[in-house]
Write a structure and sequence with these properties.
The protein is mainly alpha-helical and 85 residues long. It contains 3 helices and no strands.
């Protein structure tokens, strides 16, 4: 995804990334034979979403920044939960 200096586009990219990350995380199945592959996909989504959020932070309004900080906190929580499993 190309980086956009436009505040709204950058914020929407971060929102979409977060939705995709949530979808991948919510579909993890520990007992599934493909769990390792699922974790690899989750890691990729975490990295991509983190980068989208960092890019959006550079141009974000105060309201957007608060939401982006919440997304970062949510990502940290997901990573911590997966690392505990």
């Amino acid at each position: 995804m190309p980086y956009h200096k436009n505040k709204q586009q950058a914020f929407q990219a971060a929102q979409q990334g977060m939705k995709q990350l949530d979808d991948v995380y919510n579909n993890l199945v520990q007992d599934d034979a493909s769990y390792g592959q699922q974790l690899k996909h989750l890691k990729q989504e975490v990295n991509e979403t983190y980068q989208q959020i960092e890019n959006a932070m550079e141009v974000a309004s105060e309201t957007q920044r608060q939401q982006l900080e919440k997304y970062l906190s949510d990502i940290e929580q997901i990573v911590n939960e997966v690392n505990l499993e």
